């Protein structure tokens, strides 16, 4: 396995569509973002009848894993604007394209299981705060899974697009120290959006 740090050294992504950069935000902004995330009113993540260890809050758009509903929710707050602008610049996007923000607090022992982001979203741009974490990737092949792993350092940013976004699953391994993340997403083609006439 090749880490994202090693991949950056050679300016070659470990997987097509995975971009990574360390030190997106400075330590002062990191502390301010962590405090704001903790104050925003996080709730335990729920998937159907299962409750996860991580705490979350969505802005802009929200996906309900219990009902499958995809709906508008509270606007992205103004205090996220500076880091949203940095994330958009890193990803080569206009900030207006990042229409959803997902805040997550991982307490010790929390992680995320294997998944792909919902097809209603396109670009996925994540900012890591607090403890370092490992983002793992896998793709089914004839005799099992192809696998890779990237280290997400504190204050770093990554983007998932193209092949790694759509052909690979990813997960976050549980860690022993608190970690926070801000994940910005753009929306996919308009045909995937909820029909406003449906009331959903």
The percent range for strand residues is 35-45%
Number of strands: 13
CATH class: Mainly Beta
Largest sheet: 7 strands, antiparallel
| First-to-last CA distance | 43 Å
Q: What is the 3D form?
A: globular
At CATH level 2, the architecture is Sandwich
Count of the separate structural domains: 1
Total of helices: 4
CATH topology: Jelly Rolls
Q: Would you list the SSEs in sequence order as H and E?
A: HEHEEEEHEEEEEEHEE
Q: For the residues shown, what is the average pLDDT?
A: 85
Gyration radius, in Å: 16 Å
Strand order of the largest sheet: 1-11-8-13-6-3-2
Show unreliable segments: 1-11, 196-200
What is the helix fraction of residues, given as a range?
10-25%
Structural class: alpha+beta
CATH superfamily: Alpha-ketoglutarate-dependent dioxygenase AlkB-like
Please supply descriptive tags for the structure shown above.
single chain, 13 strands, 18% helix, Jelly Rolls, four-stranded antiparallel β-sheet, 200 residues, alpha+beta
Structural topology:
Layout: H1 4-9, E1 18-21, H2 27-39, E2 43-47, E3 50-59, E4 61-63, E5 70-72, H3 81-91, E6 100-106, E7 112-115, E8 121-130, E9 133-141, E10 144-152, E11 157-160, H4 162-166, E12 169-172, E13 179-187
Antiparallel strand pairs: 1-11, 2-3, 3-6, 4-5, 6-13, 7-12, 8-11, 8-13, 9-10, 9-12
Q: What do these coordinates show?
A:
This protein has helices at 4-9, 27-39, 81-91, 162-166, and strands at residues 18-21, 43-47, 50-59, 61-63, 70-72, 100-106, 112-115, 121-130, 133-141, 144-152, 157-160, 169-172, 179-187. It has 200 residues and is α+β, with helices and mostly antiparallel strands. The chain has a single domain (4-191), classed as Alpha-ketoglutarate-dependent dioxygenase AlkB-like (Jelly Rolls), CATH 2.60.120. The strands form three sheets. Strands 1-11-8-13-6-3-2 form a seven-stranded antiparallel beta sheet. A four-stranded antiparallel beta sheet has the order 7-12-9-10. A two-stranded antiparallel sheet has the order 4-5. The longest helix is centred in the first third of the chain and has 13 residues, at 27-39. The chain starts with a helix and ends in a 13-residue tail after the last strand.
């Amino acid at each position: 396995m090749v880490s994202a740090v090693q991949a950056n050294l050679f300016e070659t992504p470990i997987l097509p569509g995975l971009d990574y950069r360390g030190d997106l935000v400075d330590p002062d902004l990191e502390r301010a973002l962590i405090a704001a995330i903790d104050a925003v009113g996080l709730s335990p993540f729920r998937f159907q009848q299962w409750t996860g260890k991580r705490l979350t809050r969505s802005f802009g758009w929200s996906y309900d894993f219990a009902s499958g509903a995809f709906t508008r929710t509270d606007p992205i707050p103004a205090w996220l604007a500076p880091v949203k602008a940095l994330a958009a610049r890193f990803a080569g996007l206009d900030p207006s394209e990042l229409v959803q923000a997902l805040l997550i607090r991982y307490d010790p022992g929390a992680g995320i299981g294997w998944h792909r982001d919902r097809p209603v979203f396109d670009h996925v741009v994540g900012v890591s705060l607090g403890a370092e974490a490992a983002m793992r990737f896998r793709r089914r092949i004839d005799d099992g899974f192809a696998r890779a792993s990237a280290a997400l350092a504190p204050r770093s940013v990554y983007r998932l697009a193209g092949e790694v976004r759509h052909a690979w699953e990813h997960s976050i391994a549980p860690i022993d120290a608190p970690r926070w993340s801000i994940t910005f997403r753009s929306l996919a083609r308009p045909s995937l959006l909820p029909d406003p006439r449906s009331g959903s």
